[in-house]
Design a protein that fits this description.
The protein is an alpha+beta fold and 93 residues long. It has one helix and six strands.
Length: 93
């Protein structure tokens, strides 16, 4: 994947949509070692930083970066929904 600002911005926007509107921060080296990405769900807190249950809630949401003749796609593993990433230059793993 190319780490250009426009590509990172597009990926971040798509990940927020794919994560049902929850905010996401994307590192410049995302997908540099693997075509898989696990987004952990946020913890519920009481006050500024104390977790309510002391542990993360829910399973991480898993995504795959896929390249085919149609370009580069982000695929949500739980339901197979896809988002086209036209600003990314994917390379096969």
């Amino acid at each position: 994947m190319n780490p250009e600002p426009a590509a990172i911005a597009q990926l971040q926007q798509v990940l927020v949509e794919a994560n049902y509107g929850a905010s996401v921060t994307v590192a410049k080296d995302v997908f540099s070692d693997s075509s898989r990405l696990a987004l952990e769900q946020g913890r519920q807190v009481d006050g500024p930083t104390r977790p309510l249950t002391g542990r993360d809630l829910g399973k991480p949401r898993i995504f795959r970066l896929v390249k085919n003749s149609g370009g580069c796609w982000l695929v949500r593993a739980e339901d197979g929904q896809r988002w086209h990433l036209d600003k990314l230059a994917c390379v096969p793993e």
